[in-house]
Write a structure and sequence with these properties.
It is a single chain. By secondary structure, this protein is an alpha/beta fold. The protein is built from eleven helices and 22 strands. Strands 5, 6, 7, 14, 15, 16, 17, 18 and 19 form a nine-stranded mixed β-sheet that branches. Strands 1-9-3-2-13-21-20 form a seven-stranded mixed β-sheet. A four-stranded antiparallel β-sheet has the order 12-11-10-22, with no helix packed on it. Strand 15 and strand 16 form a beta hairpin. Helix 1 packs parallel to helix 7 and helix 3 crosses helix 11. It is globular and about 65 Å long. It starts with a strand and ends with a strand. The structure holds flavin-adenine dinucleotide. The site of flavin-adenine dinucleotide has 43 residues, from helix 1, helix 2, strand 14 and strand 19. Flavin-adenine dinucleotide (FAD) binds next to helix 1, helix 2, strand 14 and strand 19.
Length: 401
């Protein structure tokens, strides 16, 4: 069982097969698959708890409804893990509060109907056979709260949501790794062979394998060894409404495929969001919220689901909970998973944008396979080399703390 602790005295490891920088969902999933492969693994997390930065801000949803075949495969693999999580981590009865109530992408535009129909055909061709195309009447037959302006939708019942906190801790507990809380990485020491150690606020850990899984801070960590990763951090906000009886508790996740706002039920209320345009921001420990956001999102979701107008009329301030985190995005919106070509022993598992919960299992399993079988990186669609032209070594220094 993984040990999650604020290290005391001699307890802090001085060497490891692998050191993972970052104890969010990605670092914890990485530690789980690394443990299974026999790596003696240390995870460094400078905050008080695991999964308390971006992972805690998430809407906690998962879907296999993607366009790119590599994303479909990664999400299918992850969802299969979520469906059997207690067995996968070997802790009987472990509950991640999974709800497979589906994802419903809706359109009210004529051109959207053809787009959704083609998307489903494409998904079927790529092995995602359980996505349905629904015309407007079929949508309202199944989901009577949907407005008469909706012309079509796609639906996959096995999509849904879960507890990101339990998922993160389940990966940690199911591993054999050492999770050092309140322990910051401050540098990566290199020698003639590549990675030699990770420098921390509690001293050095000698290792030949370091994984950057630092969420929005991944670019900062990479800069210690002179790398400039093609990452952009974008603020994203989440609204949770308590006690909203009009929201059907068995409703799926609804996404307005034309404009973007989304909502799903959440214990007596709802969780809502919208990836609105934002200026790129520096990595942040505390991401500010904007109290115009709930009103904008509610107006947005009411376009296709009219009961939200009634909700807005009665909503009071104390029922609204607003939080925010940052998406860490790459230019093609897909994560970077795999080795750094320039520095032996340095690996990336980062840049998951809005998909780090849902992709966690597949992405972490892939990274560990790539470490074990480096030759397979040429077939890896998430390899760093796709951005090699955007990546420049900006420093020849061998150690930067
Ligand atoms: C509003 C919002 C909604 C979202 N909704 C969804 C969703 O529904 N489904 C989904 O799949 N994804 C969603 N996401 C995206 C998802 O939350 C992220 O992709 C995921 O949490 C990234 O996990 P991570 O482990 O890479 O990053 P984080 O959770 O940020 O973890 C990185 C960790 O590294 C630590 N760290 C950084 N630097 C150091 C250092 N030097 N030393 C030690 N520790 C360090 C940080 O403290 C942090 O805990 C959403 C994100 C937001 C903001």
């Amino acid at each position: 069982m993984g040990k999650i602790t604020v290290p005391q005295g001699d307890e802090f490891p001085r060497s490891a097969d692998m050191v993972v920088i970052g104890g969010g969902i990605i670092g914890c999933a990485t530690a789980f698959y690394a443990s299974r492969a026999g790596f003696d693994t240390v995870v460094l997390e400078r905050r008080d708890g695991l999964g308390t930065l971006t992972t805690a801000a998430s809407e906690e949803c998962f879907r296999a409804q993607f366009d790119e075949p590599e994303n479909i495969r990664m999400m299918q693999e992850s969802i299969a893990v979520f469906e059997n999580f207690a067995d996968v981590i070997g802790i009987p009865g472990y509950d991640i509060n999974i709800h497979q109530k589906g994802y419903l992408f809706l359109t009210a535009r004529e051109e959207g109907v053809e787009l959704l129909r083609k998307r489903v055909e494409h998904q079927h061709r790529n092995g995602l056979l359980d996505v349905e195309f629904l015309d407007g009447d079929e949508v309202r037959k199944r989901f009577p709260h949907v407005g008469h302006n909706v012309l079509a939708a796609t639906f996959r019942e096995k999509d849904g949501w879960l507890s990101a906190h339990e998922l993160t801790h389940g990966f940690a507990k199911g591993s054999t790794a050492f999770f050092a809380l309140r322990t910051g990485a401050t540098g990566i020491r290199l020698d003639a062979h590549g990675v030699a150690a990770v420098v921390t606020t509690r001293g050095e850990i000698a290792t030949r394998c370091a994984v950057i899984a630092a969420g929005p801070f991944s670019g900062v960590v990479a800069s210690w060894v002179g790398l400039q990763l093609p990452l952009t951090n974008l603020r994203r906000q989440k609204v949770v409404l308590a006690d909203v009886p009009l929201v059907p508790s068995n409703a799926p996740m609804h996404i307005d495929a034309d404009e973007g706002p989304y909502w799903r039920p959440e214990v007596g209320g709802a969780a809502l969001g919208w990836a609105l345009p934002e200026e790129p921001s520096e990595p942040m420990e505390h991401v500010p919220t904007d109290w115009t956001f709930p009103a904008v999102v509610l107006e947005g979701v009411a376009r296709l689901v009219p009961f939200w107008n009634q909700v807005m009329e009665k909503l009071t301030r104390e029922k609204i909970f607003l939080s925010a985190g940052q998406y860490t995005c790459t230019p093609d919106n897909k994560p970077i998973i795999g080795p750094c070509p320039d520095i032996p022993g340095l690996y990336f598992n980062l840049g998951y944008a809005g998909h780090g919960i849902m992709a966690s299992a597949g992405g972490a399993r892939l990274l560990v396979d790539l470490i074990l079988k480096p030759s397979t990186n040429v077939e890896n669609p998430f390899r760093y080399e796709r951005f090699s032209e955007a990546c420049t070594r900006i420093s020849a220094e061998r150690m930067i703390i």
